Amino acid sequence: MNEPPGIRLSVVIVNFNVKYFLEQALLSVRRASADLPVEIFVVDNNSVDDSVAMVRKKFPEVHLIVNTENLGFSKANNQAIEQAGGEYVLLLNPDTVVEEDTFEKCLAFMDAHPEAGSLGVKMIDGAGIFLPESKRGFPSPFVAFAKAFGLSRIFPRSRLFNHYHLGYLDRDQTHEVEVLSGAFMLLRKAVLDQVGLLDETFFMYGEDIDLSYRIVQAGFKNYYFADTTIIHYKGESTKKGSLNYVRTFYQAMMIFARKHFSGEKMHLFIFMIQMAIYFRAFLTLFHAWTKKLALPLLDTGLMVGGLLFIKNFWATQYFKDPDYFQPAFYYFNTPLYVAVWLGALYFSGSYDPPLRLRRLVRGLLWGTLFLAAVYGFLPLDFRPSRAIILMGALWAILSTVGLRFIIHFIRFRNLDLGREREHNLVIVGHKEESDRVRYLLHQVQVRKNIIGVVAPFDTDDLETYLSTISRLDEVVYIYKVDEVIFCSRDISSQDIMRWMTRLGPHLEYKIVPDESMSIIGSSSKNAQGEVYTFDIQFNIATAMARRNKRMLDLLLTLVILVASPVLVWFLEKKQGLWRNCFHVLSGKRSWVGYASVEEGTNALPPLKKGILSPISGLRYPIHDGPTIQRLNFFYAKDYRPFDDLDIVWRGVKGVGGE
């Protein structure tokens, strides 16, 4: 009697709050494992997006390890590797899609090359662009210097300056390389047993470099394998525009240097890394602040210039005296008016995308009303003329609206400001699946101009389909298509990736997994992936709501402090009032948060712990968990600042409690 074949491959995926990407990754792994003895591990690092429930429901074959805290990438992988029984172990990111024959090809290569300790593959991002981190070199001091200070980007094919990404090696050919990416790292289990598991000193980043280095030091080879491709929606796991990424990545490099280098080489490497941290942190901050402050600074310049012109015009034409206004107009009134208008624009959401002219006009009108209200309370020397406030407000509205029209025209060559052009979209799939995609897009209210459906097979039915997939590039050109959605049930991952690469990065690509209620894609390796899904949209999660809630907390604290001599007589608990005011001012607490319940708030947008909650001050006490969960849910979903005012007014007796 023949013994059943042993497990050839153990796939290990560490997940943290990327449920929809994980679902797509597991579906692709399932297809790639169809004819192979494969076991799959998912290690969840305390996600709060129902990833665990999704895996249990849709992927019962998966070995699921659920952590109650985020243990980091290395430790979580090791948890699964210690249980793995495969001849090979694959470390795979949750935001990836593998081809149907990826595993078969990779295992065949490893079998044919016994000297290979590890193998990586060609990776592309969600726009079909090759990811250079598919193959890398060891970060020596000079290599680290060239990468940190941008020389590798300036000279991408230089053997000297871009050794980090091995830019001089052909991406379409298989090569022996030094470092592989942890997003897809196929390891020979026997080699892993010899060199050891991932170093848990590395929480995130650097662990793949360290493991690659130890494999080479042990006498084995790492290979970049170009005969198969995977999609890596890299923006989901690496937010490169953040200071946190800069700090975490380069600290990992310092750990690597202290572990593997010594003497002058170590000190030089660490010095280079420290310089890189400061340099990249400066660039990151400069870019972020420039992006955020450019429009407010332009608005400021227009408002100041307009006020000064209006002041001179009004003094000359109305008062017949160019020196009529006091010097206080320059150092008090102008800064006050501009600050109020800018603050009103900020809190009305005028600087939040997408641009809405009504937010801009509404903000300036509210700011003007505020200035008119406080005008009478100013000393006489600081009250130049109400006419200047009104004319200044009119100028502020006209100039800021005009500025946005100019910026929009420069970028898009049209004047459809505030009205985004609907993207032309085609669906690649059978009619049944394309109808499901249409339904999903309609349900989540995604505004797209659906041109039609491209058949993934040969057909003459041109009433149902625009064309066959072989002419997809013609369809894209003729109909000026902006976005392509592939139905993975009807077209293989291999063909999807081939078409993404062929059509180029100027389009947006998304994939709808089989039987999934989500459509997934990403337009850049540095941008967060986009998901069309039935998920509830919570108002409390928007930037404007968060900002207004914080401002309301500060204003309520001021009111409570002013009213405290009288208020303390009505409080159920007096001793906690000053403490609560301090905690709210410092940002540690909020006046209103979720009601305490053992379960039910994990899936809601996080909030600061509240002194009061949606159940505070209700006429009838509520103690059952489901009702509290529903009240928390509706508070987050339909949040308006007036909700907080209502809760504080209703539950004012409890502002001094816990």
**CATH architecture assignment of the largest domain:** Alpha-Beta Complex
Q: Please name the CATH topology of the largest domain.
A: Spore Coat Polysaccharide Biosynthesis Protein SpsA, Chain A
Low-confidence stretches: none
Mean pLDDT: 86
Question: Which structural traits does this protein have?
Answer:
alpha/beta, about 45% helix, globular, single chain, seven-stranded mixed β-sheet, Rossmann fold, about 650 residues, Spore Coat Polysaccharide Biosynthesis Protein SpsA, Chain A
Task: Describe the structure in your own words.
- With 658 residues, the chain is an alpha/beta fold.
- It has four domains: 9-135 and 171-235, Spore Coat Polysaccharide Biosynthesis Protein SpsA, Chain A (Alpha-Beta Complex), CATH 3.90.550; 239-416, no CATH class; 423-533, Rossmann fold, CATH 3.40.50.720; 539-654, no CATH class.
- 45% of the residues lie in helices and 15% in strands.
- It is built from 20 helices and 18 strands.
- The protein has helices at 19-32, 51-58, 73-81, 102-112, 141-148, 151-154, 189-195, 207-217, 243-260, 263-317, 328-347, 357-375, 386-412, 431-443, 472-478, 493-503, 543-567, 577-585, 625-637, 641-650; strands at 9-15, 38-45, 63-67, 88-92, 96-98, 116-124, 175-177, 184-188, 221-232, 423-428, 448-455, 467-468, 483-487, 508-512, 518-521, 530-533, 590-592, 610-612.
- Strands 1, 2, 3, 4, 5, 6, 7, 8 and 9 form a nine-stranded mixed beta sheet that branches. Strands 12-11-10-13-14-15-16 form a seven-stranded mixed beta sheet, with helices on both faces. A two-stranded parallel ribbon has the order 17-18.
- Strand 2, helix 2 and strand 3 (63-67) form a beta-alpha-beta unit.
- Helix 1 (19-32) runs parallel beside helix 2, helix 10 crosses helix 11 and helix 17 packs antiparallel against helix 18 (577-585).
- The longest helix has 55 residues, at 263-317.
- The chain is globular and about 90 Å long.
